[in-house]
């Protein structure tokens, strides 16, 4: 077997050995490898590599991070010699294999063409174009690559493709290449040679009108996007096609003859009904109900208009054509069909009039006159007019019949809310059952029955959209001997899914690109920025923060409305905070993420602005809400508003890259004012979105900014929110800091993970992790962090105490009292009074574990007084919990009950659900000690229920043990 490594860049970056792809799961590793490959044979210095990977804002320790990525890359490739280390940088001697193959085939084609062997030249060019697998380096995020290298590589591929299709036309293969040319022209709308090739192919296939339509679309695109008219060659080609003098050596098929008189012709121009049409029963019934002439009454004078609207690939045209065929009998005077796109309504009106039998000489020039003639021709007749792929209402209005009896069925990516009398039928994905039926019709029931799980996975990965399902089904149908699991596995990878959903002229990405390009600039920016968090549900405030740093935030609400109108965003109801929320469809999310990835510098700046604004909001919440007990304080201060969170002052953040102070601005203030007076509840409602923001920020090298946000969010939430979601926040920061070689940030995140694990993991594991944190903080000279870790380590060591024996046989660490005293000294040295409370609580725990309950009670009371002076209710409640336990241990149930009641009141005020559960359990133990078994049972059950809701396994176990004690006491009365 061939074990040589092969590099491919003409599409997503791939590394192949022995015919099997070597996965590169790290985005940074792909970027480093791609940057070396495009400079193959040349030394790339470390500083140059850092610039290419991170742009103008590399993270601290970038040099070390590059070394780590290269070490892991060599290990993944399995051949350390592939990437050479030189004194000043790195070098790959061999360039991309597919690029070398492209050059060889292009030279071979040129030699064959000069020798007059056009067939051999064409074979070489076909093989060369097959190397181009889609957008070049689509899975690599580097601004330098996307601005400096990828355009050059794309140009080489396009030149090769244009050369190939020029030869195809010379050899008479015009029919066979139309689909390919349509896809290429749609993907590169500013590329005039592609439009010219497509026009020639269509014309030679006898499709003169379509060839001219290609010119109209290209001209409109060039004017809209570049402000230019088509070049002379394209204009001359249009004239040649109009006069039928293009390439006189090739005889095109004769165009369809036009009727020369004005007699009425009842024609059916509908395309064939889709053979595999599936589902949509409700939509069909509504269309028929709205368009059927039987519903008209004498006063119903308006023409029924129905617009089928939905996201790209939803099957709008298929539904409209299927419905039109079902309605044929109700419209006996004919069924007209016109593709619109970006065509001029005047040209469409001309086609319709010719289809209705009007001679060319009788058709006026101006659109107003053509519209009047069309209305006259349709007056008092029953005609169904199907207008496909409308851009806007203004395009449709001149084409509408003037009298009732006829009806209009429109398809559009947009809602066309400004079209008077329009009834919108919105298409979403198929139901899972309908999607399964469509897939089964294409690949056969036997193959689906053989692996129903894979079939469901394929349907889900296609987002249950008909176009994607048809592509997947066609690919499977072309290979009847293979199972469905292979395609299902490839479709699970979001980064390559759109590449997989492409077959000939069918491509999901092409439709999404057209919809995106039809947006105005502000909406395109919004679509791209939201692609940073493509798989999250989001509200208007998020889009505002993502777009305002460069001045676009003021139009965020308008951009959001445009995205919904274009069916690129789906309303998702109100979120847990009561805000209207939106989401991308599964495949739209993939496309948006691609665009966000191709504009890394822009996305990084927007994401940093978002993270810092949220950090400021959490810092404001810190001022109005009590600080949690276990977590470390934030690593560095954040800019905060002058007024409380509930007053919703404009937030001030430091916006990269210049550290200038930028307000979250007046136009965002209105949105911030809508935030509830409960910021903790608001952040808890958005915890899933926060996970997306944190993970994306870390992936884009913003781990330091993200760490500041996480340092504030987790302490706010972990008393109300289960640990798993919060663990993902801490883990993302830890992993990113570790990759960057930033030990202080990494170990702070590790400590935060230990705090979250205290309520779910075994005590021995917690002790082991805390010891590691203590060693790291000691080694790194992080005095304040060390004081916290020592205090928590002591409490973890002695946690079971006298009331519950250590069930895993682990004995308290010798010297716990000395460690607790050191924690107090370090806290005072760092000037952190909250850390001093933690140290005093640890001292009380160590004394209680040694059965010195009176001394423990005195120390716990000192901690309580200090916490009270700090106005820190979480800290005071924690100290009171020790007072409660120690008082109970010495038989002072009255003092224990008083401390417990005070702690419960404090915890209720700050909505600390976890702390409340612990004190409910203490209340049960006090009631049991006082002989009130029934009260104790109720309290312990309530505590166990709270612990279960919070996922606190340790708390639930102890509450269950207390329940057992209570039940034993009830069954054995004194």
Automatic annotation (TrEMBL):
Keywords: DNA-binding, Transcription, Transcription regulation. The keyword DNA-binding applies. PROSITE patterns: OMPR_PHOB (PS51755). Residues 1-94 form the OmpR/PhoB-type domain. It comes from the Bacteria. Coiled coil: none annotated. SUPFAM superfamilies: C-terminal effector domain of the bipartite response regulators, P-loop containing nucleoside triphosphate hydrolases, TPR-like. InterPro entries: AAA+_ATPase (IPR003593), AfsR-DnrI-RedD_regulator (IPR051677), BTAD (IPR005158), NB-ARC (IPR002182), OmpR/PhoB-type_DNA-bd (IPR001867), P-loop_NTPase (IPR027417), Sig_transdc_resp-reg_C-effctor (IPR016032), TPR-like_helical_dom_sf (IPR011990). Belongs to the AfsR/DnrI/RedD regulatory family. This is BTAD domain-containing putative transcriptional regulator.
